[in-house]
Amino acid sequence: MEIKKEDIGRYKYCFEYEFDLDVLTFCRAIKSKVGSKKFGFYQGKWRFNDIGVVYIIKDKYQLLVLVNNNMEGDIELFEIEKKKQALKEKELSKLKEATDTDFVVRNVKGELYPYQKIGVEFFIRNGGKAILADTMGLGKTLEALAYVAHRELDKTLVICPASVKYAWENEVKKWTKLKPIVIDSKTELTSQLFADNNIFIINYDILKRFVNELTTTRFDCLICDEFHYIKNPVAQRTKYVKSIAKNIESVLLLSGTPLLSRPVELFNGLQLMDPEEFNDYYLYTKRYCAAHQGRFGWDVSGSSKIDELQERINKYFLRRMKENVLKELPPKRFIDYPVELDPVQYRNYKLVENSFVKYLKEIKKKKKEEIDRTLQASALVQLNELRQITSNGKLYSAKYVINSIIDAGEKVVVFSVYNKPLEDLKEEFGDSAVILTGKTNNEKRAEIIKSFQEDDSKKIFLGGIKSGGVGITLTRATNVLFIDYSYLPSDHKQAEDRIHRIGQTADSVTIYQLYAKNTIDERMREILTEKQKLFDTIFNNKTSNESSGQQSIINDLLKKYDE
User: Fold this and answer.
1) Could you please report the per-residue DSSP string of 296-310?
2) Which of 17-21, 280-284, 336-340, 456-460 has the lowest mean pLDDT?
3) Do residues 39 and 28 make contact, with C-beta atoms less than 8 angstroms apart?
4) CA–CA distance from 279 to each of 37, 251, 318 (Å)?
5) How far is residue 495's CA from residue 249's CA, in Å, rounded to a whole number?
6) For helices 140-150 and 165-175, what crossing angle results, to 10°?
7) Who's near 265: CB < 8 A, 6+ residues apart?
8) Which residues contact 266 (CB under 8 A, 6 or more apart)?
9) Contact 458/434 with Cβ under 8 angstroms?
10) Rg of the chain taking only CA atoms, in angstroms
11) 397-405 long-range contacts, Cβ below 8 Å, gap at least 24?
12) Alpha-helical runs (H) found in 430-519
């Protein structure tokens, strides 16, 4: 067996051996692990570019394999680079564990917290490519902008959800001397506009219109806020972001919830960090998502080899927990608030639920090939009908909790998945409440938030868990009330941290969760708790033997009803 330098096609090196089934099986295992782009069979030999493959083969066959002399120079350079990389990773790990730093951040108005300075230093030491996964409320926006200001970068593109575009504009003006421009669907991207501004802020939803101009414009840095918006590899906006990022040197990805509920949702972000290391979606999902051919195609909803994944992504990730870096923040108090639907509402609920269970039993009788996406979609509609009945049926209890809070002289933030309960509460409480849902115009969001934060007469903030649970600050409140459950635990975490963040001065923050007894609420509570364990396993170095990530939350919920 021999490894030698043989530059053919896209490969530089090759591994030769007389045919042996065991060696062939070993080579296929290498291909499965590193991907066909890194190790493939071409013109009668196994070929590769990464010298690291030499060490894999040598480790297996020891003295039985000869490394040709024509590889000495390349191996020597690889060893030097390997030592540099090991030293860099050691320094980065040490930095991530630090509580303070002597690093001085230039060109920023005001003083950063020590952990925020560490964040900027981490970006710089990582060559401007990193994923900042701090928990909500720690100031990820500021850290990203501080990096841009410190390096005196001329042109930066920020891609974010529409709901936080103007929040980004405000932060740029507040912390830097850079000139921001918010791009909307009517904006004309002229050469003068590019000449006059430094920070260009656009939402994911309108990238299609501007992708040509943004791809051909020279940006020094790309910041993707809430980067789980590009979790779907076949979605158009994911393709647009990848196309734009291709020629940008610095790429910063921000999200307090980068995993959501499945490891597959990390792939696109990791590919932006290192397209060579994460070049094969099929291989990644096979290894880390327990991917397999399912009823409707390639099923990537699971998780596997989580410890290995955590080790691989560690060099890109910086994640700090609020309780570890902001000791002065008040503790959270969680109160589960069980309620009963009144007899009329409960009777209506049971009619729908019984119909739904009957429907699932009918599905189970059918042959697998007859169960198509239409049937699944119908099941989801019925699930949502059950959830809406419980949400509306809890309004009486919600009003009681809200009145108890405001009668005590405190403010409260109320979240719901659905608009109707929020609209009913707005009608009930009138001018003492403000409301922000997906229907709210982006320009009015800042006005609504400001009135709640500054006007003592505005006691209640009513928000959609998606539209009002991301990218805003509501620190005048000391209480959060969830009327219902989202399908993802990360939505709840993001929403509650609109209050539990920098600027909160209360002694404690209280979080109430209403749930209707003997309904779908109780099933969702159990599933969401299990899903949170998977997130903790990957990002917080916790160990768990739970198989919570093996199915999507909706499928798990369907299974609960099918038991």
Assistant:
1) TEEE------HHHHH
2) 336-340
3) no
4) 8, 17, 22
5) 33
6) 50
7) 228, 231, 258, 259
8) 231, 258, 259, 313
9) yes
10) 26
11) 397/337, 397/339, 397/514, 398/425, 398/481, 398/483, 398/514, 399/425, 399/428, 401/337, 401/481, 401/512, 401/514, 402/429, 402/460, 402/481, 405/479, 405/481
12) 442-454, 489-496
Instruction: Report the distance separating Cα 348 and Cα 71, nearest Å.
Output: 76
Cα dihedral value 27, 29, 32, 34, nearest 10: -70
Long-range pairs of 540-543 with CB within 8 A, sequence gap ≥ 24: 540/319, 540/321, 541/310
So what's the pLDDT on residue 535? 60
Residue 376 near residue 552, CB atoms below 8 Å: no
Q: What is the mean pLDDT of the chain?
A: 88
Q: What is the C-alpha separation between 268 and 261, in angstroms, rounded?
A: 15
Joined tokens for residue 291: 């991917």
Closest CA to 160 of 150, 152, 171: 171
Name every residue whose Cβ is closer than 8 Å to that of residue 153 and which is 6 or more positions away in sequence: 198, 220, 221, 250
Q: What dihedral angle (degrees, nearest 10) is formed by the CA atoms of 461, 464, 468, 470?
A: 140
Instruction: Give the pLDDT confidence of 234-292 residue by residue, as tens digits.
Output: 999 999 999 999 999 999 999 877 665 588 989 999 999 998 889 889 889 998 999 99
So what's the pLDDT on residue 123?
97
Q: Hey, how many other C-beta atoms are within 10 angstroms of the C-beta on 519?
A: 23
Beta bridge partners of 222: 157, 251
Coil/strand/helix, residue 132: strand
Q: Does the CA dihedral 336-337-342-344 come out positive or negative?
A: negative
**Position of tokens 């921001």?**
180
The H or E element spanning position 145 is: helix 140-150
Question: φ and ψ at 257, to 5 degrees?
Answer: -135, 65
